[in-house]
Design goal:
Elements (H helix, E strand, L loop, with lengths): L1 H11 L6 E4 L7 H12 L4 E2 L2 H4 E2 L2 E2 L1 H6 L4 E10 L2 E9 L8
Parallel strand pairs: 1-2, 1-5
Antiparallel strand pairs: 3-4, 5-6
Amino acid sequence: MRALLWVALLAAAPAFAQRIGVVPFSGPNAATVRNQLVTAICDTADCVNTGKVTTGNKPDWKKAKKEALQFFVTGTVAKKGKASSLTLEVLSKPGPAKM
């Protein structure tokens, strides 16, 4: 009985996957950082090709709605001396991010 439950849960897992668009990041080595993040996120989420949901590398909410996208991930890489930092924003609707 437990085995049957696990099979049902595993089969249902993809149905609950979030549809995400990872917008091109800005800053030094931004493409490398973005690629690392995409590799990690897209293992468990349904990542949509950025070209389908952006205009000019910015989130396009009309295209996102058409693709049933739930979230955009944006990022900025900043370098100060030898240290680098990454700032991420996860957007679920148009407008500025709320903290």
